[in-house]
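Issue: copy button drops trailing tokens. Both records pasted manually instead:
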Amino acid sequence: IQEEKAATLLKAQKEQEERMAYLEKCRQELESDYTNRVARIRSFVQKTIQHKNCRNKMVPQELSKTQMAFENEKKKLKSDLKKCTAFCKKIKSSQSFDDVFVASLLKDLDTLNLSRYLEEISNAFLDLSSSSSSSNRKLKVGDVNGVVQVLIALHERYKDFMTDILVPQMIGYLKEKQQDHVDPKQKKMYMRILTELLVNGVLIETKPIMKIVAEAAGVAKGDGGGVDGGQEEKYVVTDPALLIAFAKSAGFELIGVMPKGIMQDMDFILSKQQQQQQQQQQQEEDAMSMEMMAEETSGNDGNADMDNEEKRTENDGTHCANTQDPVKQDIVITVSQTLLTEGKEAIEQLESIQNERALNDEICNRFRKHVTGAMTYLSKSLISAHKKLFKMQTRCDQDRLLAGSLPEQREKSLKEAQLLFESLKKSVETLAEILNIEMPLLEARDEEEKKEDAVLGLEVYRAEDGQETNLGPFDDEETKDFYCDIPDLLTTIPPALLGYSAEDVERIHKANSEKYGSGLANEENRSDIITIDEYVSTANESDLESALEEDGIPGSQVDEGR
């Protein structure tokens, strides 16, 4: 008995250790996820605050003071050719616009007078993202933030650099209509840089960017001309990559919508805080109920105490039995109070910047309308491309079963359809994240396609009159007619060879026309068609021999053949 008790106790201890290990693992995973979400929200808030501070510096009064102060100190700076050209070469030969490299460029700007080299500096930045650049390294998305910091510093010192030199060249390139002279990657980088400058308050004029975004979204001319046009605009997206590049950089400060990922992080943190509050309330209620039970049982006799002890023992046994498998239990795991406090602070910071906008509400609403309209068009295109791809895949699978392989052109068309679907899906997912809306529902197959798939190797074809026609293993009616319809022998074999006179031929044609119509016989009535053997058996042998001898075949060979 003691050995059984020891074994039972050892098993219970092992189960308790497993349960505690599982709870600790779940707690660590939860706290790691919670910490990552808090960090994302803080980074998002910090970036928004940086944009706001930069916009405050770009106010005309503040900017003019900064530029005037630099003009007064400019004569004291170095302007020799060697160091100024070295600054341009440094930009062209840059490997990465990280914090260290950007800090070195900003330090050079504080010591150099680059008034005579602004065009060379502008060409150096433009050359970074050009496909024809002599540099081995091209500008990447991660470099945009560093590039913008340097451009803002140049704008604070040289008032004509952005408005008269760099920005007009970028906008002119984005408006280029000839596709041979345009690099799509370069366009996306220019759009990102211009959008970041717009968010930071460097660019004041929004009409060029608005026009480029409207053209990329494919706004139909004459359909309202904007938010205040009074008519519903129609969108036919012409450049989804350029539009997505704008939407990624614009964010909620230009579009006016919080990203879906940030909203999901906020909801997760709020749910954990609410869960913690509910657990605390439950603990307080349990403590109060235990105190009340202790007061009630203090005046009872020993028998009542014994009964209560037995009930508590039964309840404890039931609880232990329910917690033997921790995986199956609905365990409430909460994070530490320190993390909850950090999450609460992050939510408060996020709520404080929700109404921050880089431009006025009218322009932001117009940007959002263009992006939303493009999202609607791309969603419809995605659904249509998904249906076409599914039908094409089903048809190709059937053809592979019948023929063993597909022609090269069919394989190429199928790959192009797959690439188009993947590209549209990626674009729609990105816009859905930015606009905080759900993805369109893509149905795998409809009821009609399920019915067709029930019969393998057969295809139900609907003719022009709407009636279903069983094509069997053939692709279309023309192919089926070629292999199944029997030609009229009277039009290919001389009647004399078949032993028929002109009257017999006319009579047979009339009978077939009355029985089968003007078309050819159906497969179901094939047994009623007069075969060539029947024609030959009814012919006169002397007529056959004479007809064959006229064709140069002697009668002896006819006898041997017979």
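Record 2 (pasted manually too):
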Amino acid sequence: MTSPPPCPSLWPLDAPSGLLLRAPTLASMKRVGRQPRQSRLELRFSLYAILLLAISSVLGNEAPTLRRSKVVGAAALRLRGASSGVAGETPTSDAIHVADDEDEPVEDYDLVVIGGGSGGLACAQEAARLGKKVAVCDFVRPSPAGSSWGLGGTCVNVGCIPKKLMHQAALLGAAVRDARAYGWETTAEDSPLDHSWPALVQGVQMHIKSQNFGYRSALMTADVEYINSFATLQEGGKEVLCRDGDGEVRRLRARAVVVATGGRPRYLDKIPGGRDLVISSDDLFSLPKAPGKTLCIGGGYIALECAGLLHGLGMDAHVMVRSRPLREFDCHMGDLVAERMASLGVKFLHKAVPVAIERAPGDGGRLRVTWKDMSQGPSGEHHTDEYDTVLVAVGRRAETKGMGLEDVGVELHPASGKIVTGEDEATSVPGVYAIGDVAHGRPELTPAAIQAGKLLARRLFGDSNEVMDYTNVPTTVFTPLEYACVGLSEDQANQQLGEDAVEVYHTYFRPLEWALPHGPENACYAKVICDRTRDMKVVGLHILGPGAGEMMQGFAVAVKLGVTKTDIDATVGIHPTNAENVMDMTVTKRSGVDPRKQGC
């Protein structure tokens, strides 16, 4: 592929490591008489060059390197093969150092958003749509294993998007095996399917790169300035100090500051090897080689999703659970999810706590994990096994370290370390707000952060008074058999309403698609939780089955609008579908009747 057309502000150099376009510093702009804000036309030139070189990289050609120019400087972009994001170079935390910033001029903005994830970007773009001057500061600290990424936050880079794509890859493998029952001539019944982990990772990472590029382009179109720097609050929260990986400093003053920095995985810092020998979900989706026999430590949705997709891709997956699976969800549903995963071949270590992780003897690169069996109490026996990879998924912590939040008076919750906010997302400091995973008590869900960000921008700069409603927010766990829910769990309903006021309708079912491959009977399950004191209003709905997330999105609208069991009964189901099982539930838990189904 040919190089980009000659341009006085862009030229190829001899370094083959990739594309580097860095924003000119304030000092360099002073030297050439430029203003800090670049023109959109110049950014278009830079992004055009990135697109051409990205295509060249996909086609296998070596991309030329573009170095800083005094004429054009698109803000901090680097493209290195298939492993880094086009959204920006991520300087390491070690690169942040104190610089003499007292002489830096203060730049005024209507809004400064700290954090380039889904919620922060939505807030920034909505404010820009309302005609305000907006900047987004984004900085990613590399994981202990060295992983970093571009603009877009956890969801796009190391969360929902790569997870769902790999989940789909696992489902396709199962579908190929089932296809024999439908007359398709595939591989022999007992022979394993061949799967290329590197090919999957390359496809996933290229899709992520396109998303990174799309976010940068959207910011440019909306006239939102992107600053690839670590942001610290100062002057009572009225100013933001931005320092990039080279120590270059900018000072921003804003009418409003929104913190949307999200969270990062916790590690097992109290045991040997619990940080330096493990990976997390920050690293899994970009591993250059298949993880092999993998131990996922944790019982939450991240651990179960990762174990499920790895097993579906042909790997030996183990899950170490301290208490119970999916304890933040409905207790019964969590047990059903784990039971289904175990029936497929995922191995569970229940009531187990890791004690040490160390390198196994030999040159095979394996890890030896020692854990304690807590089923007999604190003095349980120790057990060991060896794994190719250990993935830690024991929760997430708020990304607030070093931002100066407490110095300016922002209150952090003592237990979670997250920012305490009111219903309007306001913190304890006037003019400083927080949305998304970094805010205490908020659901750690991308769509919720996006909606909260948009509504906040409209309240700050529009004529809206609407606040985010965090009740009845639906979600899905993408385990091999998906689990989706909206509203209260059964335990929550009993606690809030009292057991006498709660009626639970439930049913087991088998998808028709499982009939020819002889899938298990009654492996899927659904239940509707109703309030008997309010005309059987539905307060919770839970589904375990294929495509549960797609079904739940529609039911969530009904629950949000106050649907009752009578309304559901009056709705004609679509036959034959899995969703119709919600429409014809007649058996209650109170009755004690077996809810398992026979026939269609």
